């Protein structure tokens, strides 16, 4: 999450009504160099031994409620869904070898959550028994912020969604399960390979003051303050790549907090590019030719907004930035694919739940000369200030940086004087909100380690800075006896525990340090946990699961619910504004009398079609999963709706077209009836 504007405002409204605003500081501006992806030679990419794997791939729709639901990521109460830019999917990859198996589930969502993963595991156990379990299933989010929320049982994250949203939760869970079913059906002999490349123009360090506090040996591994490495795991059959998972360290926050359309952001566009290049249409392809996931590595402090302002860089158009940054990540992944080498057979997995409020950081990772300890979860005032570069910042009286929030720091200093252990853990954080004491966040967090051949995936339940990623790779590599380059960092996996910053970064109390819940020793604690998992894996020893959090019953939200629709005098599906002729690269649109889109989420289907005239008939050329389209909904009066369908024709689209709108209306008895609207035709010129 990159901003806490509404959460912080709500907290302060309740607890600090008499604070006066302090002057805000200006954000720095920088432009990253524009360079091409640089492939690494196959000899540098990993083992050249021949693979021996069964692999299955599966995709299913997880698009949540597209209207009136708070979005998850920026923490802005005004950012409520009002339509759909691109559909969101679960993509599953089963990898089997030597009688063992792992399952990588990637979601076009902010994060994997404990609630979603638990319910998905429960349903998978009902179908597959012990085949899929806590240890061998990873559920991770691409970290897009253009996604509906309300899918976690922890109240802090449901403030802007006004509670839990069962419909969006069910969309994610059922989509995961269906994607796994399809992956099971797709299992077949597959070559597994891995390659790397570099790309330094798809992200910029957004917290340089904190990063520069790291030791030189860590800074030297992160040119320009961020990790430029693009790692691509590929799956090949018959000489063709049929699947890929890419990891790259940049935020999918090209779309700003002002955007209210559901979308995959830049990583979603990279996925779309690779899949559409292979001719995939998820509405009709039961067995897609390509399944591509673009995930986030150790980029918690890396912004795609290259000018270090929301929606700025390389252009001033957020959707164009989404396209450009997605294309750059796609190009880097293809360069890695070209440099890939087969991985040896063999897979393995370990997982453990850690009570992060009562954990020990081993002395060999602390730098203090002895063991240290974590403590009760707390969010700092600098967290409340928000990430200026991505989220736009928080209330004017909150600021990033140590010693910049005197009111909260003064209160915390009193607490620290009375509790030296708390001071050693949380100082110099000026605490804004004691989320642990209020049981508002998950504190028993899963840490997972997966092995595929001679490479390891460290799956962490939060956002990992570049420097923390360097330390995590080193801890795993030393434990299992490989080069750190053989360790992949997967963030926002299986749960959400906010940020993980190094002790040096934590001391600077930028946004990321203020969002490091469990204090200065968080990263050393996780280093010790990963090293222990690695040692168990290397020796073949099982790892006890640890103490899982108890399942909760969150409070359902009343927002976004539809009591009934009214057609108005025009009737459902009536065209209120016809499209006009347009040119390639410009945008055509039509407005319809509609109904509330939450009546039916149209999974595996679409709210809109763009159709081209061919002979005496019409052929669909785009739908609501395409980057070139958008579906926008607005409420009219109390229970009426207006819907706007838009399409920007790509090159080569000259011809005659029309829009088709698919809606669903609910009457007073609760019965839902589908209807269709059809626009007049319009022409696209070159």
TrEMBL record:
Span of the signal peptide: 1-26
Catalytic residue list: 303 (nucleophile)
Boundaries of every Neutral/alkaline non-lysosomal ceramidase C-terminal domain copy: 536-684
Cross-referenced Pfam families: Ceramidase_alk, Ceramidse_alk_C
GO CC, any one term: extracellular region
Family annotation (InterPro entries): Ceramidase_alk, NCDase_C_sf, NEUT/ALK_ceramidase_C, NEUT/ALK_ceramidase_N
Molecular function in Gene Ontology: metal ion binding; N-acylsphingosine amidohydrolase activity
Keywords: Hydrolase, Lipid metabolism, Metal-binding, Signal, Sphingolipid metabolism, Zinc
Cofactor binding note from Swiss-Prot or TrEMBL: Binds 1 zinc ion per subunit.
Residue ranges of domain Neutral/alkaline non-lysosomal ceramidase N-terminal in the record: 54-524
Catalytic EC class: hydrolase
Catalysed reaction, written as an equation: an N-acylsphing-4-enine + H2O = sphing-4-enine + a fatty acid
Cofactor: Zn(2+)
EC number: 3.5.1.23
GO biological process: ceramide catabolic process; long-chain fatty acid biosynthetic process; sphingosine biosynthetic process
UniProt binding sites for Zn(2+): 143, 251, 463, 499
Disordered: annotated span: 534-554
Similarity comment: Belongs to the neutral ceramidase family.
Protein name as annotated: Neutral ceramidase
């Amino acid at each position: 999450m990159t901003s806490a504007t509404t959460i912080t405002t709500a907290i302060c409204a309740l607890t600090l009504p008499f604070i006066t605003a302090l002057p805000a500081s200006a954000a720095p501006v920088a432009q990253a160099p524009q360079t091409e992806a640089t492939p690494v030679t196959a000899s540098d990419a990993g083992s050249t031994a021949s693979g021996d794997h069964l692999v299955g791939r599966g995709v299913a729709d997880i698009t949540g409620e597209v209207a009136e639901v708070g979005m998850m990521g920026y923490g802005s109460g005004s950012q409520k869904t009002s339509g759909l830019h691109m559909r969101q999917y679960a993509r599953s990859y089963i990898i089997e070898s030597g009688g063992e198996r792992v399952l990588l589930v990637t979601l076009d969502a902010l994060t994997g959550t404990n609630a979603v993963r638990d319910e998905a595991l429960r349903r998978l156990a009902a179908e597959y028994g012990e085949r899929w379990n806590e240890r061998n299933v990873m559920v991770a989010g691409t970290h897009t912020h253009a996604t509906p929320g309300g899918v976690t049982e922890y109240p802090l994250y449901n403030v802007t969604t006004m509670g839990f949203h069962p419909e969006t939760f069910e969309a994610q869970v059922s989509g995961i399960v269906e994607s796994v079913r399809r992956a099971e059906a797709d299992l077949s002999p597959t070559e597994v390979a891995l390659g790397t490349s570099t790309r330094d123009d798809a992200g910029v360090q957004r917290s340089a003051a904190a990063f520069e506090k790291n030791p030189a040996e860590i800074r030297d591994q992160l040119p320009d303050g961020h990790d430029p490495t693009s790692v691509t795991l590929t799956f090949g059959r018959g000489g063709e790549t049929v699947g890929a998972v890419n990891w790259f360290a940049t935020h999918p926050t090209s779309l700003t907090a002002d955007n209210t359309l559901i979308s995959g952001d830049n990583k979603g566009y990279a996925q779309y590019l690779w899949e559409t290049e292979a001719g995939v249409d998820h509405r009709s392809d039961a067995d897609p030719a390509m399944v591509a996931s673009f995930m986030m590595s150790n980029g918690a402090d890396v912004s795609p907004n290259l000018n270090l302002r929301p929606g700025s860089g390389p252009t001033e158009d957020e959707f164009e930035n989404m396209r450009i940054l997605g294309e750059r990540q796609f190009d880097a992944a293809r360069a890695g694919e070209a440099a890939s080498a087969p991985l040896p057979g063999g897979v393995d997995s370990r997982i453990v739940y850690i009570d992060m409020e009562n954990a020990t950081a081993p002395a060999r990772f602390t730098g203090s000369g002895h063991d240290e300890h974590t403590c009760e979860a707390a969010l700092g005032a600098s967290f409340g200030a928000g990430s200026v570069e991505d989220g736009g910042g928080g209330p004017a009286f909150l600021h990033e940086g140590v010693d910049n929030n005197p009111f909260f720091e003064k209160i915390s200093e009193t607490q620290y004087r009375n509790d030296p252990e708390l001071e050693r853990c949380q100082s110099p954080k000026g605490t804004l909100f004691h989320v642990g004491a209020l049981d508002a966040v998950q504190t028993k967090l899963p840490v997972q380690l997966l092995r595929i051949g001679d490479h390891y995936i460290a799956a962490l339940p939060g956002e990992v800075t570049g420097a923390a990623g360097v330390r995590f790779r080193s801890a795993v590599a030393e434990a299992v006896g490989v080069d750190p380059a053989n360790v992949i960092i997967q963030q926002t996996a299986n749960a959400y525990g906010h940020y993980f910053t190094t002790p040096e970064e934590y001391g600077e109390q930028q946004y990321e340090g203020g969002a490091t819940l469990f204090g200065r020793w968080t990263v050393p604690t996780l280093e010790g946990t990963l090293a222990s998992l690695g040692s168990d894996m290397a020796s073949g020893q099982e790892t006890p699961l640890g103490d899982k959090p108890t399942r909760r019953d969150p409070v359902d939200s009343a927002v976004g619910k539809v009591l009934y629709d009214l057609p108005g005098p025009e009737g459902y599906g009536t065209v209120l504004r016809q499209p006009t002729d347009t040119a390639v690269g410009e945008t055509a649109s039509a407005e319809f009398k509609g109904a509330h889109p939450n009546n039916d989420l149209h999974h595996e289907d679409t709210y809109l079609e763009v159709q081209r005239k061919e002979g005496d008939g019409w052929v669909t050329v785009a739908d609501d999963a395409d980057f070139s389209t958008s579906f926008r909904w607005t409420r009219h009066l109390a229970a009426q709706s207006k819907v706007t369908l838009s399409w920007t024709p790509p090159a080569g689209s000259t011809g005659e077209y029309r829009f088709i709108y698919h809606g669903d209306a609910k009457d007073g008895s609760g019965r839902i009836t589908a209807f269709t609207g059809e626009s007049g035709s319009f022409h696209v010129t070159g």
